[in-house]
Amino acid sequence: MKNTKSIFEMIVDREIDAKIVYEDDLVISIEDINPVAPYHFLIIPKEKISTLNDLNNSHKELLNRIFEVARNIAKEFNFDQKGYRTIFNCNEYGGQTVYHIHLHLISGRKLGWPPG
Ligand code: 5GP
Fold it and tell me: Domain of 34?
């Protein structure tokens, strides 16, 4: 799995289309193709990191950037004050389906808790 290109790498390389809302040297942010709420963005490192278990101290700047971008998007789309949820799913029990880490940024309605 490590040597095959992930769907998100293909988006970064413009091999498949996505609605890109933000991009810089470290991350890209897109609209989720199958939104679970009125706002559903993914903030994705350009470097393929398969799961949260693969993160280490060398990723501090990257993680900081991911959450900075999430805050900025929340402000830009005006749901920072109403609120939102950020989620990293990890492996089978976490419901991860794409093995290239991504932060879900979800808002636009009141979200239920606990998750199913
Ligand atoms: P996970 O289940 O791994 O936490 O989240 C993967 C997310 O990626 C899902 O919410 C799914 O809808 C989204 N996704 C999968 N393939 C594509 C794609 O080709 N384009 C976009 N924009 N989102 C995708």
Answer: 7-107
